Amino acid sequence: MCKPGDTFYVKAKDKELRSRAESGAAVSTLLKFALETGMVDAVLAVQKGADIYDARPVLIANPAEIQEISGSLHCGTLLLSRLFSSYLEGAEGLRIAAALKGCDVMGLYELAKRGDVKLDNILMLGLNCGGSVSPEKAREMIAEKFSIDPDSVKKERISKGKFIVETAVGEFSLSMDELEAENYGRRSNCRRCKMKVPRQADLACGEWGVLGTKATFVEACSEKGALLLEKARAAGVIETSLPASKGLEIREKIEKSMHRLAESWREKDFEALGSGKSRMKQVIDETSRCIKCYTCVDACPALSRIKPSDFSAGSPGKVPPAFAFHALRYALVADSCINCGQCEELCPMDIPNSLFMHSFAVELQELYGYQAGQDLSLPKVAPLENRSHNK
Ligand code: SF4
Ligand code: SF4
Ligand code: SF4
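A: This is the predicted complex of the input protein with iron/sulfur cluster.
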């Protein structure tokens, strides 16, 4: 029997599906299986829209449509969590499976804490995530640094520290470190993100630790996730094998080095922002461009219960709003910021909201020994280094 903490290499049994999808089609096969067998009523996923810079959410009820969901789409920066609360009634009357990045999962926990989603009805297939690139920045980076027409790019991926693009004439890559040194590459919140393997989900899936075979490394993180794996294996839709010890070692190394990198970005970003009065001055200067569109409020998983009318302290009708508007936003998010980057990504005035919120939240979280985006009442899977290999 599969149980929380178990790890496997997983691939679809269906050869056609395997040849079409990445990493052995494990995630799409598990989503399809959950839908076909009635474990869930629908699947929420991301689909490629007009091009690789256009990530679109899609709710699928027909298992045949699962093949249309996207593999990696690093130039799309959607956060799926608020879709559950804003458009899917918090999954109250619908059981939904979803393939989710770490920030999506953390966002769901923040919403659940506020009573805005029913986690029991959500089956979370977590996806390892090294980061994503803003669509506009991706176009600029591809034109400037790769000297390629952004519209000619058919596929992109981030692998082994490189950003790789594929066009009709071949594959081109550049080191992510070099790109980021010139302020290209991943979004700044993604550089600081430590949620690379989303173990708060029911399954954590990704390619780190897979050696020489087209498969997905899957870690069972909850009873629900373990049950899905067990049922899919018994039904013969997936095949599983135990990870090689070298694979486990490599996976651990990758995860640790990504954490170190995130820590060094935090130090760099927070140091540049400063503290005390100089930080507040930067915050006041930057937010003076605000046009009070409320996008940062609408997008934030920690502000799901907040309405524009709650901001009457910020001088109604006045643009830019009084600083009280931002002070109230910060106070309401407080230590709950999950660093998803939405308030910055979507801000029409390019205000680095996420950097400000994250810096305040990290200070508070360090003070209280708490981490946003987790349900502390849930049993946790042991950290990788304390875990024995599968029997
Ligand atoms: Fe991935 Fe973290 Fe960025 Fe979310 S915030 S896209 S989990 S790196
Ligand atoms: Fe102001 Fe930007 Fe928030 Fe809009 S998204 S209210 S412009 S800070
Ligand atoms: Fe995400 Fe911004 Fe809200 Fe933090 S404050 S959780 S970065 S939207």
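Residues 290-296, 347-349, 351, 353 surround iron/sulfur cluster (ligand 2) (CB under 6 Å). Residues 378-391 have pLDDT under 50 and may be disordered.
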